[in-house]
Specification:
Elements: E1 6-10, H1 16-26, H2 35-59, E2 63-67, H3 70-80, H4 85-95, E3 104-108, H5 111-123, H6 137-153, E4 158-162, H7 167-182
Parallel strand pairs: 1-2, 3-4
Helix pairs in contact: 1-2, 2-4, 3-4, 3-6
């Protein structure tokens, strides 16, 4: 184990305002939310998260582990919902100043398997975050293809992990990806 200061963030959410936006975006009763409204809400949350959580952590020398970021908007709202990709790129310039991660670990999983796991997870929660799980399988196939296109285009940043494996195997593969990055840090 290494002694690396880490800040964990998530999207949508990560800040008080972001968590309020998260409730709107993920609540299954907001199914009527228009794609462009959805996109703008994600970027409102993302901008707050960047300014309040991510940049201050990086300034202190911490690593930031963020569950989703701008690539998710490109995949879900761009490839999945069909919003023009140039619009999303413009929002990246405006709201996050094109600040992208050094490394993106993409857990590539069969969309049917992923959707089943997400629906099972959401059925066990007390909080309703099932709006996306109401989408048809075709939507998730488009999202997956979008992620794979991004990973191919930016192969220097993306690392693919086979998500169809067991959770332990996925974990071990991620540790293997991270090992060279942690070599210069003192062991605990």
């Amino acid at each position: 184990m290494r002694r690396i200061p880490v800040v964990v963030a998530r999207e949508p959410g990560g800040t008080p305002l972001g968590e309020s936006i998260r409730r709107i975006l993920l609540d299954s009763t907001t199914a009527q939310l228009q794609p462009i409204s959805e996109l703008l809400l994600y970027y409102a949350s993302r901008c707050q998260n960047l300014m309040e959580t991510i940049l201050p952590a990086l300034d202190k020398g911490s690593w930031v582990l963020c569950d989703r970021y701008a690539d998710a908007s490109m995949a879900y709202q761009g490839y999945g919902r069909g919003i023009n990709l140039e619009t999303i790129e413009a929002l990246n310039r405006i709201s996050i100043n094109c600040k992208m991660p050094d490394l993106t670990i993409l857990i590539d999983i069969n969309p049917g398997l992923s959707l089943g796991r997400a629906r099972d997870r959401n059925s066990q929660r007390k909080v309703d975050e099932g709006r996306f799980e109401k989408e048809p399988l075709e939507f998730y196939n488009r999202v997956r293809q979008g992620y794979l296109k991004m990973a191919q285009k930016e192969s220097n940043r993306f690392r693919l992990v086979d998500g169809d494996q067991s959770i332990d195997q996925v974990h071990q593969e991620i540790l293997h990806i991270m090992a060279p990055l942690t070599e210069g840090h003192r062991a605990v």
